[in-house]
């Protein structure tokens, strides 16, 4: 069930762009940072028409923390549904509590948290609601069938997008506090032929 496997350990940022004038300008960095999927439900760009479907979410709301509006470390890459459900509410940090050891996605599409924080976040975002559970179950079936009968489709479903952002060319106005992260970006890894076919 690699398609819904949460990260094994808390996420540590690899990028640190600064000085952009809008949150949208951080999008290429966020896409790469969070592997082109929603940090909450793990929906991937490859599974939807990603135009308008993925957002840069302010983890700490701008209403309560206006000073964090353009701070990269306060931005997450999320799907529209999770962004809508979270809204301006304060929740546990998904980068710390939605981990593979604390969250399990079963073949029937159900998702279960083992820790208090994971359970509360899953409940708050309604990730276990029937529609989300059915969507996960359907996607898991499609991926399983593709793995057995159509390896090209399987690679498309679990592979990286074709339009990987070339972060080497981007020059954040305020610099980059973590410049070494660019060397680990998906675009650079693909250029070096070190990017895996699926993830």
Describe this structure in a few short sentences:
With 199 residues, the chain is α+β, with helices and mostly antiparallel strands. Helix content is 31%, strand content 8%.
Question: Could you explain how this protein is built, in words?
Answer:
- With 199 residues, the protein is an alpha+beta fold.
- A hairpin with a 5-residue loop joins strand 3 (103-105) and strand 4.
- It is globular, with a radius of gyration of 17 Å.
- Helix 5 packs across helix 6 (151-158).
- The chain has helices at residues 27-33, 80-86, 94-97, 116-124, 130-149, 151-158, 186-191, and strands at 54-58, 75-79, 103-105, 111-113.
- Strands 1-2 form a two-stranded antiparallel ribbon. A two-stranded antiparallel ribbon has the order 3-4.
- It starts with 26 loop residues before the first helix and ends in an 8-residue tail after the last helix.
- The longest helix is centred in the last third of the chain and has 20 residues, at 130-149.
């Amino acid at each position: 069930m690699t398609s819904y496997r949460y990260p094994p350990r808390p996420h540590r940022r690899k990028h640190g762009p600064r000085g952009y004038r809008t949150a949208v300008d951080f999008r290429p960095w966020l896409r790469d940072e969070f592997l082109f999927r929603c940090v909450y439900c793990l929906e991937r760009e490859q599974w939807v028409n990603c135009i308008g479907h993925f957002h840069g979410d302010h983890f700490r709301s701008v209403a309560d923390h206006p000073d964090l509006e353009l701070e990269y470390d306060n931005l997450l890459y999320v799907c529209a549904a999770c962004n809508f459900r979270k809204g301006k509410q304060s929740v546990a940090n998904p980068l710390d509590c939605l981990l593979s050891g604390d969250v399990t996605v079963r073949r029937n599409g159900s998702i279960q948290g083992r820790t208090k924080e994971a359970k509360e976040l899953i409940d708050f975002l309604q990730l276990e609601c029937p529609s989300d559970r059915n969507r996960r179950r359907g996607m898991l079936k499609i991926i399983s069938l593709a793995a057995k009968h159509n390896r090209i489709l399987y690679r498309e479903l679990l592979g990286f997008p074709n339009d990987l952002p070339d972060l080497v060319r981007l020059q954040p106005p305020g610099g980059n506090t973590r410049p070494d992260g660019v060397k680990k970006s998906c675009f650079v890894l693909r250029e070096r032929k070190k990017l895996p076919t699926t993830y």
